[in-house]
Amino acid sequence: MRPGMEPGPLQRSGDGRALGPGRDKEDAERALFSDHHALFAAAASLIPSLKGSLVAAGEACPALTAATRAAPAEVAKALHGHWQQAHPEAGPAYWLTRSWGMLCWQSIYLAMVAVYRHQAVPALDRMGQGYQEGLVSGFTLPVEPMIRGEVDVLIKRAGERLQAHWQGLFTLLGEGQRLRPGFVRPLLADDLLAALVRVPDFFGEVSRDEVTAHAPHWLAACGLPLAHLAGWREGGLPRDEAFPGYVRQRCCLHYKRRDGELCGNCPRRQGRASCDET
Question: Which pTM does this prediction carry?
């Protein structure tokens, strides 16, 4: 070795750990884990059953899993079968509506938490979900960098990833049931806006005026009908069970169950649209 080229002492971090090649990669991986765990903590604090876990970046997340280890399409079929057996009196439209809502609720609420509390968008398009006895809860995400940016950018990218996720679920449920885009898109629009209107209640730093302004952008980003804005109530108006923040434009058909009734934001209760089952 030439004079003057001798290696110096091994550098160490403040906690005594050695620094060297690969250290940056290790720190980046640690930051990714920390970023996701912070998102998961925020989601679970909002809704305890919205509980996330991680899989390796290159590992595929099955869209739907159950303890039986059945294929995702079989799990989707079991989900529909559960509601058919639990409430045979409610009819086919209810079974399908309930099943679809179960498949999509986690992605919608996770998107709200990610954008408004975490200011980032994870890989929603690669989200996996767990199933047990009629309920879809618990999810997985790959360890990948999240998208950062201004809120309008986050809404747009979240919408793109949600559409990809929903398309996968549409294919799964559609393998065993007659499912049409014209049936699910109004349901998605209702569920999205019903979640968005609650964001100021969940996160005090977000105002009702903000989510009112964002509502059309969410619908556009998700490829959903803007006509559903007819159910939105202005942020300054009082809200209670009689006058909810958002009135659904498509009935969830819960009232058809023997133990059911009209929901507080049902279009029939509010004198808006009829409970269309088609």
Answer: 0.87
